């Protein structure tokens, strides 16, 4: 009787322990990975033909630009070669998977929700990215992208894709992190008016995240004309020059529903809606006045405006001689910069 009672108690304790362990295992923190979707056809020994980039201005994604990346990397159009695509985001859903999987030449599409630095170091996450040929960053928060991914396994894996001749694209914040310098947006909201009035207030420009060929000394801004961001991009350019971080800085402002695609030779082309533009804002001399709590003065910004189907040579920038000039005097732009 005593032995039977002791056995029953031991069995109950074992069952309780088993349930506790099972519960812990089920609820261990995991990187949210949505649906690894695959087509039936296999990859055909892809030879990567990049690196290439897609810089989207936010709003509706330009499917043509994403398809262009896929075609450029596989080195052909309407052929049997296929690529694996990974979508990276800080939060959100798998909304990209189905649409990208339906594109020509896609073998698989996977969305990774990577929301902190611990997740950005996990081996399975890094391997998923390393195995891809095309990476696409969703919009969101460039501050979180920088905080969570800089100098992590995810950071290194993305660079390895480009080193092998792959592609990286992004929209909104996902495009802003592709430039050499990045406005990190970790402080209060910065608009053109406040930036021009006080060029150092709440403006931090990071470097050393990505360093892509043909995008050296650039800084990207998105939702551009829709949110009137010309003044703040001018301020970013002036800051890079005044702080001695570049001797010839180039701002790239991309409108919504518009993408700038950049091939391996540095030739950039605008794709998207007819009324969407990309603005290239160059500063090649020191600002006359760029100091904390002092309105900006900068004479003769060079600006190029490019519409759908038009190109800009990022590698040989001096060849683009069809610019117009706009100046800033005591925080005020002297003419319509658009």
State Rg. 24 Å
Overall average residue pLDDT: 89
Query: Order of strands across the widest beta sheet?
Result: 1-4-3-5-6-2-11-12-15
Distance between the termini: 92 Å
Proportion of residues in extended strands: 25-35%
Helix content: 25-40%
Low-confidence stretches: 1-31, 38-46
Spatial shape: globular
Sheet/helix structural class: alpha/beta
Work out the number of β strands: 17
The helix tally amounts to: 9
Largest sheet: 9 strands, mixed
What is the N-to-C order of secondary-structure elements (H for helix, E for strand)? Answer: HEEHEHEHEHHEHEHEEHEEEEEEEE
Describe the protein's architecture and organization:
By secondary structure, this protein is an alpha/beta fold. 28% of the residues lie in helices and 26% in strands. The strands form three sheets. The protein has a nine-stranded mixed β-sheet with strand order 1-4-3-5-6-2-11-12-15, sandwiched between helices. The longest helix has 25 residues. The radius of gyration is 24 Å and the shape is globular. The N and C termini lie far apart (92 Å). The N terminus is likely disordered.
